[in-house]
Amino acid sequence: MGKVDTEGPPPTKVVPDVTSTDELSATEKGDAALQILRQSGGLQQPLDSERSRRLLRRIDYHIMPLICVVYFLQYLDKIAISYGSVTGLKTSAHLVGNQFNWVASIFFFGQLGFEFPTIRLLQMFPLAKYVSVNVTIWGIILACFSACKSYGSLLACRFLLGMAEAAIVPAWVVFTSQWYRKEESAFRVGIWFSMCGWAQLLGGCFAYGVATHVGGDVHASLKGWQVIFLVLGLLTVVVGILFFFLLPDSPAVARFLSDQEKAEHVERLRGNEQGIGSQTFKWDQFREALTDINTWLYAFWIFAANIPNSIATSFGNILVTGMGYSKVDSLLLVTPLGAYEIVVLVGVTYVAMKTQQRLWCCIATHIPSIVGGILMAATGKASALVGYYLSGGIPIGWTTILGLQASNVAGSTKKITVTAIGTIAYTVGNIISPQTFQAKDAPRYLPAKISIVILYFLCTVDLYLIRLVYVYRNKKRDAEAAQRAPDYVPEKNHEFLDLTDIQNPEFRYSL
C-alpha cells in the first residue's frame, strides 16, 4: 500500500445514501456508523438541542457507571500490592532487599508483552465482551495472590495480572470516542479516571479496617494481606461477569437505544469526524500512527509521568512511613491523595469542557504538582506529606492525554495503535518506577524525589509542545479551506469513512 498523503485530500469516493452494492462495500470498509444510517434510514426529523441532551443523559446513565466501576477496580487491584506491603506480605513471602521492587515492576512486563496482541484482539472481537473476559480473568488471578507464599509465586501472579489488564486503557479510549462528542469527552474521561482517586481513598480505608481487625488477630486463619487480595479478586470476578451482559460493544448493538436513537447518536458524533469504529485493520493507518509526531509526544508524557507513579501505587505506604508515620497510620494517611485527585480531575476537566481549553487547564494544574515534588524532596513529615498530596494533581495530564487520544486521533486502527503505544510507554515508565526507590536510599528516597521534580517539569513542557502542533495544523487547514472554490462541498458522509485525522482535511484538533 502506498505512502499516506499527510495533508492532501483522501483518495476516497463520495458516499451517498447507502443502498447500492458498491455503496455497501464502502460501508464495510468505512465506519460502523454508516451501517446504522443504512439500517435506520437516517433521521426522521432534525436533531434539536433538547433531544440531543436527552440522548446524552440516557447514554451517561447506561454507560458511565459501568466503565467507572471497572476502572475503579482496575486501579484498586493494582495498588493492592502496596496495602499488602504493610500488612504482612513481605514477611509471609520472605521478600528481602529489592525483591518487592521487582514484584511491583513485573506487573508492567506482563502488560507490555501483551499490549500489541491485545490491540488486535480489541478490533477482532466485540469490545465489551473481550474486556469483560479480561476483567474476570484478572479477578481470578488477584484472588490467587492470597495463596502466594514465595517470591516466585508473587512474580508469576503479578505478570499474569499485567497481561489481563493490558486491554483496559485502549478499550476505555475507544469507548469514550464511540459514545461522546469531542467537547464532552474530556469531562467524561475525567470522571472515569477519577476512579483512581476513589480507589486510593476507599481502598486505604478498607485496608486500614483489615489491618486493625484481622491483622491484630493472631488466631485468624487468613492474614490481613490475604483477605485484601481475596476480597478484591472475588469482587472483580463478579463485576467482570456483569459487565459481559450489561455493556454494549458499540452504539450499533446497544439495546437501550432504538433504531432512531442510534441514528440520532450518529448525527451527534458527526462533528467528531471519526464515527464509532471499524473492525478492519488498516496498515496505512498503523504506519501513520508510527510517523505522527503527536503519537510520540503523547508517549513521552505518559512515560515520564509514570516513572514517579510508585508514590501512589506500590510505594505509597512505604513512602509515607519513611516520613515518620507508622505502617497502620500510613494506610489512612495515603487516602487524602485520592480525595485531592478526585477534586482536581473532576473540577479541572469540567472547567476544560466549559472553556474548551483542556491543555491550558492541564498545564496550570501541573504547577502545584511540581511544588509538591519539591516539598517531598526538601522537607520532612507534615510538609512532605502535604507535598505528597499535591502530587495527586499530575494525573490530570493522563486524563488529558487519554481525552486527546479519544477526540484528536481519528481512524480506528490509528486510534487503537496510538493508544497502545501510549500504554506501552505507561508500562515502561512503571517498570522503571519502583527501581527508583532503592533500598539503600530508605527511608527518605531522596534521589527518587529529585527525579520526580525534574520529570514533572518535562511533562509540563511536553503538553505545551502538543498544543503548538495542534494550533499549527488547525491554522494550516483553515488557510487551505479559505483557498477552496466557493462551491466546494465536502464529501457526503466523509465523517464515517474511517479516515484518520491527517487524511481528513475537514478534521480540526480540539485544544
UniProtKB/TrEMBL annotation:
GO terms for cellular component: membrane
Keywords, alphabetical: Membrane, Transmembrane, Transmembrane helix, Transport
SUPFAM superfamilies: MFS general substrate transporter
TM helices/strands, residue ranges: 59-76, 100-119, 131-152, 158-177, 189-211, 223-247, 296-319, 331-352, 359-380, 386-404, 416-433, 445-466
InterPro entries: MFS, MFS_trans_sf
Gene3D superfamilies reported in the protein's UniProt record: MFS general substrate transporter like domains (1.20.1250.20)
GO terms of molecular function: transmembrane transporter activity
Cell compartments where the protein resides: Membrane
Membrane topology type: Multi-pass membrane protein
Residue ranges, annotated region (Disordered): 1-23
Top-level taxonomic group: Eukaryota
Family of this protein: Belongs to the major facilitator superfamily. Allantoate permease family.
Protein name, as recorded: Major facilitator superfamily (MFS) profile domain-containing protein
Species assigned in the record: Capronia epimyces CBS 606.96
